[in-house]
Amino acid sequence: MKKLTDTDKLSDGTGFRKELIDEVKKYTIEKHLYIDDSVFEYNTLVALSWQRLAEGKIEKRDITLLEHEYYKMTMKKIHPEWNHMQAHKVSAK
Questions:
Q1: Element (DSSP H or E) covering residue 40
Q2: Which residue ranges in the chain fall short of pLDDT 70?
Q3: Domain residue ranges of the chain, discontinuous segments joined by +
């Protein structure tokens, strides 16, 4: 995974603010990888999506990933008592 500085390029390619992409990328890499905040989960689809984004080969599903992760991250800020799966279920609707 490239450094957070690659989000300048991602911002240009997606239309999302760089700061939002920085937050989502950090959250996805540091927080999203855990189910119930304890069990490590490596998600190949998420990794491939970040790779496409970084390479500028953006697909609609990659935009959906950014939106979903941002919403999940926001829900966990609003509801700090929620675990990963609770925030995921609400975000997936």
A1: strand 39-40
A2: 1-5, 30-42
A3: 4-91
